[in-house]
Amino acid sequence: MQHDGIVQLERAVDDFAVYLAAERGFSVHTVRSYRSDLGQLSSFAHSRGIDDADRVSLELLRDWLWQGSQAGLARSTLARRSAAARGLTSWLAKTDQVAVDAASRLKSPRADQHLPRVLTALQMGSMLAGLFSRATSDAPEAIRELAVIELLYASALRVSELTGLDVASVDLGRLTVRVTGKGSKERVVPFGVPAKQAIERYLAVARPGLLRDPTDALFLSGRGVRLGTRAVYTLVSTLLSAIPGSGPSGPHALRHTAATHLLDGGADLRAVQELLGHASLGTTQIYTHVSAERLKESYRSAHPRA
Is 287 one of the annotated active-site residues of the chain? Predict the structure, then answer.
């Protein structure tokens, strides 16, 4: 709600979320995270008697982050909150809804540096062998699961990219898949022969059995609709729970694994950046750290004078 030319903070958060989705092309997940963080900022400001966007100050924002740190929030969460606040106030200033960009000097806490979980080639091979064994039957779900995991690992896709694929996205002749990534940016990603064979069998045997109504979606659920990200999370989490190792157990672990295995095999860092759809090379460089750590572990366990 707006009164006397003053923009209320709660309304500003809603409008900013619409802007991120409609004009910036942010994913549903990212917009939801921004809205949640900024909704908490709005509640915090209200508790301080501030409801108007132009009364948000640098001091208020610092107090909000400090309260979060005192509540035990991770530095990565505080960094995300800081980024959300800077995005909101910058947009408000650029659209002349407020006179001053209050968060322009707001610094983000350094995020916790955790190396991602990476499976060994042997662990990955064992997982895929188990899926292949189950997929020798004509059970549509087992055949679909093999195709999903093969493609996730082969192309290092994000889970949202995988579930967003249509049948027409896959070129089995050229062994490529056209993906819509973050910011609605398209890229073409290669995959290998095992993934091709798994997808071909899925399309020929499993998908027709899962299909209920006409749809362009590549991967279908048991109800015949587009497979959701939660179902893929559950699948990967179940598979990883049987494998020794610590760290996150979602589909991103397979993306981390694929990227690290590519670098271990001698792939160029910029080629891996393009494959992953990273806007910044710095984001991709985390995998060089993973490769270095793996090399150190191998050295320490194998070298007689380590």
Answer: yes
